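Subject: Interface between my chains keeps coming out wrong

I've been trying for a while to get a sensible model of this assembly. When I model each chain on its own everything looks fine, but I need the whole thing in one frame so I can look at the contacts. Pasting all components below, labels as-is. Any help appreciated, I'm running out of ideas.
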Amino acid sequence: MAAKADRLVEAAKGAQDFGKELVMSTKLIPRITLWRTIVAVIFAAGIYATYARFALGFAQSTHLTDPQPWGLWVGLGTLCGVGLSAGGFAIAAAVYLLGFERYRPVLRTAVLVSFLGYMSVITGMMYELGLPWRIWHPIVMWNRHSVLFEVSWCVMLYTTVLALEFSPSLVEKIPWKGFREFYLTWHHKILIALVLIGTLLSSMHQSFLGALYLITKGKLDPLWYSPYLTTEFYLSAIPAGLAVTIMALYLCVRSLNVKLDLKILSDVSRVIAPLLALWGVFRIVDLVTHDATPYLFVWREETLSFWLEMILLVIAPVVLLIREKVRSNPQYLYWTCALVVMGFMANRLNVSITGLQATSGVYYVPKWTEFATSLAVLTAVVLAFRYAVIYLDILPKNPPQQRWMVSSAEA
Amino acid sequence: MENGRSILIDVTKCIGCRSCEQACKQLHGFPLESEAKLSVTALTVIEERGDKFVRRMCMHCQDPACASACLVGALKKTAAGPVTYDGSKCIGCRYCLVACPFNVPRYEWSKLVPYVKKCDMCAERQLAGQQPACVEACPTGASIVGTREEMLEEAQRRILGDSHYVKHIYGSEEAGGTSVFFISDVPFEKLGFVAAPKQPMPVLTANALGDGPTVILMGGALLSGLYWITQRRAEVAAVEGKENLGRKSR
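Reply #2:
Try treating it as a single job with all components included. I did that and got this:
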C-alpha cells in the first residue's frame, strides 16, 4: 500500500517536472544547461564543417588523399551507421516471422533507431559523395557487377521499408479517424510482407558492405581480408544493432524518467553473447585457415588494433554477458553494450582504415571537420529520437506510463 | 577486346627524357611542370628508380576492377582496348580508387565539382587512327603501340632474345591481364611494381554477388516457412486456449 502511494507521488512529481519542462521549452529563449551548450557547440562546429565541405571542397574539409580515398565518412558514417542500425530488422524478424512475442515491446524502439540510423547514413552520403546532387544516378544507371550498386539499391529500398514500418507511430497521431483507420488496416495487411522483404534486404546489404572490400585483395591487411567478409559483416551487425537498441532504451529510462520493465533489456541481451562468440570463433577459424596466424602476434599497429577489436567486441562482452548479474543490472548491461558498440566500430574502422594503411603508404588521421560533421549528424539523430519517443508512442507500455497521459493532455 | 590496342613499355630503352609526360600534359592542357607521382594533372609520369626510368600510367586491365566497382558504369573497358571514364555518370563515390590494384585513378580533391582523372590511352586519337600522344612522342621506342597480340609477341621476342631481360612480361597475368605491358632487366618489385593478384579482380566480388539471388530465394523460402510455423502455432494455441476454456466452464 505504501509502495503504491510512493509510486503515485513519484508519478505526480514526474508529471510536474514534465509540465515545467514544457513551459520552459515554449519560452523563446531556452534555459542554458550543460547539455544544451554541448549540443549547440556540436551543431556550430557541424555547420562550419558543412560550409567547409560544400564551399571549400574536400581538400579543405578532409584529410582524404588518393591513396586513402575513403576515410571516416565511409568507415564511421556508412559502415558503422548501417551496421549499428541492424537492430530494427533483427527484432522485426524475431517478432513477426519467428514468433518471439516477448520482444514485441521493444519493436518500435528498434525500428525507430534503425530508421534514424539509415537517415543519418543518407545524410552522411551527401557529404561523402563528390557530386552529391547525382545521388539518384544509380536508380537509372545500372552496373550489376558492382557491389556498391547492390548496396545502394538495398539501402534505398530498405530505408523505404523502414519508413513504412515506422509510419503507424506517426499516422496514429493523425486526428482524422477515417484516414487513420484506412491507413492502419492497409498497413496491417502488408506488414508481414514488409518485414520479410526488409529482413532479406538487410541481410543482403549488411553482408555486401563487407563484400565491398573483397576487391581490395593485396591491399587490405591479412588480419581483415577474407573471402568471408560478407558473413563476418552480417554476423557482427546483428549483436551490435541489438546493443544499440538496449542502449537507446536505457537512456530513455535514465534521461526521460520513463518507467519500463527492464527485464526486456536483459531478454534482448541474452542473444548478444552467443552471436558475438560465434563471430569470434568464425573469425579466428577464418584467420587460421587463411594462414594469417603469423600476423596475430607481431608488434605492429595493425595487430594491436586487431586485439583491441577482439577484446572490445568479443572477449569482454562475452565474459560479462554470460553473468546473470550483468544481464539483470541495467547499468552494467548498458556499459557492456557500449563495449560491443565500440568493438564494432573498431572492427569497421579497422577494415576501412587501419587495414589499408600499410599498403596505401599514407597515415590517415581524419581532419576535425570530418569528426564534426559525423558528430553533428549523430547528435541530430539522438535529438530526433528523443523528440520521437516523447511525442509518439514508441516505448514499451508496461507498467502504464502516466507521464504520457499528462503529456498528451497538455499537448 | 582480346585483341584491342595495347602499349608495350621497355624499361631498358627509356632514357628519362619525359617527352611522354610533356605530350600528355600538352594534349590535356595541364601545366607542363614535371611531377613525381601520378596526379590529376599528370596521367603518366616517369619515376626514377636507381638508374632506371619507369613510366607509370593506367594499366588498362582486360577485366578492370574499377569498371566492376563503379556503381553507375562510368568506367568501361572498350572493345578497342582503352578503359574509359564517362564523367557525366560519375557520382564521386571513389570506389574505383579503392578497387584499383595498381592505385592509378586520381581524384580532384581541391575542386568543388571533382571528377576522377586517369589515362584513357587516348581512346579518341586511336579511333581516329592516331597513336596515343605519349607513344608518338617517345624518341627511343621505349613505348610502342599495337594490338595486344602483337605487343605480347614483341615482348616475348625481346625477353627470349636477350638474356638480360627478366623472364616476365608485367601485365601478361597481373590482375588477370592488362593492355599495358612492361619488360625490364631489373626485377619488377625493385622498380616499385605492385604484386597484383593474378586473377581478374572482378572475380573476387562476382562470387558474392552471385550469391545474391540464392540468398533471396532460399532466405525468402526459409523465412516464409518460419512465418507459417509461427502463425500455425499461434492458431493452434488460440484454438487450444478456447477448448481449455470450454472444458473449464463445463
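Reply #3:
Confirming on my end. Chain B has a mean pLDDT of 93.
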